[in-house]
Design brief:
about 325 residues, alpha/beta, Rossmann fold, seven-stranded parallel sheet, 10 helices, about 20% strand
Length: about 325
C-alpha cells in the first residue's frame, strides 16, 4: 500500500485530502501541531503531533513511516494576520517548509505535493489566470508561499526533488458525507460568514466593495469545492509516482461567482435571507480572480466536478447546521 504523509492534515483542506487519499487506497499519516487544526478531523490514519519547524520531529516521522509522497498543507493562511504579523508567516510557512525539505533530502524521500495559492499572483494582469501569469504577491501570506515555490524549484535542481505545486483559488464547501468540514477560529472565509448571517439574527455579512467593474458591482471569485481539491491531490500523487520534475497547476473552475450571487445562493439553500451590509473594498482587492484550469485538465485529467456554487453552498450549509 502506498503511503502519504500529510502535514497540516488536521486542517480544512488537509483533512479533506486525507479522506481523498484513503478512498483511493493510500495509507495516510497526518503530521500536525494542532495549533489551527482539529484532532477530530483526523479519521483516516494515525496522527503525529509535531511541528514542521522542528527538524527532529518531522525527521523522525519521515524515518518511521517512509512515505512515498509528502503532501504539504501546514501553513498559516490569514491574509490580514500576515500583514499584521509577517514574522510568524515567514517562520511557520517559509522556514517550516525549508526544514521539511531538508529532512526529506536527508531521508531520501523525493516526492512532494505543495498546497500553494493564487495569492502568489497578486493583482492579475489578465483573467482567467494561467500558470504563466507573473507572480507578484501583495501580502506576506502570498510572499511566504511564493518563497516556498522557489525553494522547491531549487531543491529539485540541486537534489532531484520531484514536486507538484497546486495553486488553489477559493477553496470552499464541505465533505458531502459530513465527516469533515470547514472550521476556523477566527472564521474569515466568506461562505461560512454568509451562512452565519442567514441563520443568526445578530450577525451581518459585510460585502467589501459594491462598485467594481463586474456584472453586479461586487467582486468575482473562483470557488472550487474542497472535494475537487482532494481529488486533484490524489491525481498529483499518481503523477509523481511515474514522473519526475516540478509541475505547477492552477485549481479552479474557469468561471467566477460574484459576492452578490453567493449571497443569493445561500438564501436559496438556507431558506433565509442573510443580513447584508456594504462597505468599501479592501486595499489591494482585485475585482476578478478566476483560474484558467486547462493545464490541470490536460496533464492530470482533473476537472472541478462538484464546484457549482449551489453544490458548494449546500454542502457547507449541511455541515454548519450539524455543528453545536
Amino acid at each position: 500500500m502506498k503511503t502519504v504523509l500529510v502535514t497540516g492534515g488536521a486542517g480544512y483542506v488537509g483533512s479533506h485530502c486525507c479522506k481523498g487519499f484513503a478512498r483511493a487506497g493510500w495509507s495516510v499519516v497526518t503530521f500536525d501541531n494542532l495549533s489551527r487544526g482539529w484532532p477530530e478531523a483526523v479519521k483516516w490514519g494515525p496522527l503525529i503531533e509535531g511541528d514542521i519547524t522542528d527538524a527532529e520531529q518531522i525527521g523522525a516521522a519521515l524515518d518511521r513511516h517512509r512515505p512515498d509522497v509528502v503532501a504539504h498543507f501546514a501553513a498559516y493562511a490569514y491574509v490580514g494576520e500576515s500583514v499584521e504579523r509577517p514574522e510568524i508567516y515567514y517562520c511557520n510557512n517559509s522556514f517550516g517548509t525549508l526544514v521539511l525539505l531538508d529532512e526529506m533530502r536527508k531521508a531520501g524521500i523525493g516526492r512532494l505535493i505543495f498546497s500553494s495559492t493564487c495569492a502568489s499572483y497578486g493583482i492579475p494582469a489578465y483573467t482567467p489566470i494561467d500558470e504563466a501569469h507573473p507572480q507578484a504577491p501583495i501580502n506576506p501570506y502570498g510572499w511566504s508561499k511564493f518563497i516556498i515555490e522557489r525553494m522547491i524549484e531549487d531543491f529539485s535542481r540541486a537534489h532531484g526533488l520531484s514536486a507538484v505545486m497546486l495553486r488553489y483559488f477559493n477553496a470552499a464547501g464541505c465533505d458531502a458525507d459530513g465527516e469533515v468540514g470547514e472550521h476556523h477560529e477566527p472564521e474569515t472565509h466568506v461562505i461560512p460568514l454568509v451562512i452565519e448571517a442567514a441563520l443568526k439574527q445578530d450577525r451581518t455579512f459585510t460585502v467589501n466593495g459594491s462598485a467594481f467593474d463586474t456584472r453586479d458591482g461586487t467582486a468575482i471569485r473562483d470557488y472550487v469545492h474542497v472535494d475537487d481539491l482532494a481529488r486533484a491531490h490524489v491525481l498529483a500523487a499518481e503523477k509523481l509516482l511515474g514522473e519526475g520534475g516540478v509541475h505547477v497547476y492552477n485549481l479552479g473552475t474557469g468561471t467566477g461567482t460574484t459576492v452578490r450571487e453567493l449571497v443569493e445562493a445561500v438564501s436559496r439553500i438556507s431558506g433565509s435571507e442573510p443580513r447584508v451590509a456594504y462597505g468599501p473594498p479592501r486595499p489591494g482587492d482585485p475585482p476578478i480572480l478566476v483560474a484558467a484550469p486547462g493545464k490541470a485538465e490536460r496533464e492530470l485529467g482533473w476537472v472541478a466536478r462538484q464546484s457549482d456554487i449551489d453544490r458548494i453552498v449546500e454542502t457547507a450549509f449541511k455541515w454548519y447546521r450539524r455543528q453545536p
